[in-house]
Fold this sequence. Notes:
Shape: globular
Bound molecules: coenzyme A
Number of helices: 2
Largest sheet: 5 strands, antiparallel
Number of strands: 5
Amino acid sequence: MMPQDANFQGNVFGGTIMKLVDEIAGSVAAIHSRKNCVTASMDQMNFYEPVIIGNLLILKASVNYVSHTSMEVGVRIEARDLMKDEITHTGSSYLTLVALDENRKPTIVADIIPETDAEKRRYAEAKERRARRLAAAGKN
Ligand SMILES: CC(C)(COP(=O)(O)OP(=O)(O)OC[C@H]1O[C@@H](n2cnc3c(N)ncnc32)[C@H](O)[C@@H]1OP(=O)(O)O)[C@@H](O)C(=O)NCCC(=O)NCCS
């Protein structure tokens, strides 16, 4: 993270991180679906620790769940202090990306098959989050 990423307190501006989170979620969704994807929603964004200018920002993202045309992508945000070689988990978020066809209409996405215990846990938790999310958005 560079000085131009700072807020007026000198740490990294949260909006800068949210933009990167949205970008990686869109990339992961496009890689899975091989379609153009748009962000339908971003769940509550939690920042546990500030990210400091000079930290290396590490974003880890995975498709946790596929419904029909939408996918939940989970993003984990880490900051690496290059001097101390310490990595801190600074935030997380879940986003819903929708795949669009050439007419910009939602289109079916290939399902994912969770294999490892962690993937199965993420899949089950994402399915529950989807139900809560759509209910909160008045979509169910
Ligand atoms: C996202 C969007 C394509 C959904 O269109 P829609 O006409 O509501 O389409 P549908 O009702 O068929 O829903 C499509 C999928 O989106 C999901 N969805 C719609 N609104 C959602 C929301 N607020 N949160 C989570 N998922 C949502 C639906 O559950 C459905 O998923 P499924 O097919 O896997 O069951 C449309 O609202 C849109 O284009 N929004 C703008 C997206 C954008 O431009 N984002 C960038 C920020 S400016």
